[in-house]
Amino acid sequence: MSSNPPIAQLAYVLHSRPYRETSALVDFITPQGRLRAVLRSARGKAGTLARPFVPLEIEFRGRGELKNVGRMESAGISTWLNGEALFSGLYLNELLIRLLPAEDPHPGLFDHYAATLLALAEGRALEPLLRAFEWRLLDDIGYGFSLTQDIHGEPVAIDGMYRLQVDAGLERIYLIQPGLFHGAELHAMAQTDWAVPGALSAAKRLMRQALAVHLAGKPLASRELFRKP
């Protein structure tokens, strides 16, 4: 009985490292999820293509968790990122490697990733793009929560103060304490209205808290790039 031929799919390289003598072990993001595959002859033409932020069309071979790269071709114009936009792209890649389960299809997330790379290359403001991607990733993998209702199903009050109960949602707090989120900030986040004072910085703080538990306390190497002079 003949096996089904491999089907080409769109992909981006998330990370690559040497494997054995002339091969590379590569993590890809595809509409069918995050895949890990061996790229043979990584020092040749294929290795030149296997760089982050290059849209690819790839045939993956094999049924196990570790696949092999068959045919690989460019599928469009490479996205050139520089400076903080480059660091941001590396941050997105690291988040996907750390949080996205292997071979768990998320075609919408793949499209969002590709659109975010394009927006970074166009020089759009970094922070709104990063917050939107973090939120989409958390929501797609099942860790999203409401920004307009608290954990008891009550509407988030504009003048209320809230804290995040990770994996549960927002809890209203009546005793003022450091690190809380103002209701007006949360409503602005829900509407992606970054003109509201403090909303963007509050969103960064909220996403840090929401992501931290799923990163198991291990810091993201890409975040360190932003701290370097």
Automatic annotation (TrEMBL):
<dbReference type="InterPro" id="IPR037278">
    <property type="entry name" value="ARFGAP/RecO"/>
</dbReference>
<keyword id="KW-0234">DNA repair</keyword>
<dbReference type="GO" id="GO:0043590">
    <property type="term" value="C:bacterial nucleoid"/>
</dbReference>
<dbReference type="InterPro" id="IPR022572">
    <property type="entry name" value="DNA_rep/recomb_RecO_N"/>
</dbReference>
<feature type="domain" description="DNA replication/recombination mediator RecO N-terminal">
    <location>
        <begin position="11"/>
        <end position="73"/>
    </location>
</feature>
<comment type="similarity">
    <text>Belongs to the RecO family.</text>
</comment>
<dbReference type="GO" id="GO:0006310">
    <property type="term" value="P:DNA recombination"/>
</dbReference>
<keyword id="KW-0233">DNA recombination</keyword>
<protein>
    <recommendedName>
        <fullName>DNA repair protein RecO</fullName>
    </recommendedName>
</protein>
<dbReference type="Pfam" id="PF11967">
    <property type="entry name" value="RecO_N"/>
</dbReference>
<dbReference type="Pfam" id="PF02565">
    <property type="entry name" value="RecO_C"/>
</dbReference>
<dbReference type="InterPro" id="IPR042242">
    <property type="entry name" value="RecO_C"/>
</dbReference>
<dbReference type="InterPro" id="IPR003717">
    <property type="entry name" value="RecO"/>
</dbReference>
<dbReference type="InterPro" id="IPR012340">
    <property type="entry name" value="NA-bd_OB-fold"/>
</dbReference>
<comment type="function">
    <text>Involved in DNA repair and RecF pathway recombination.</text>
</comment>
<keyword id="KW-0227">DNA damage</keyword>
<dbReference type="GO" id="GO:0006302">
    <property type="term" value="P:double-strand break repair"/>
</dbReference>
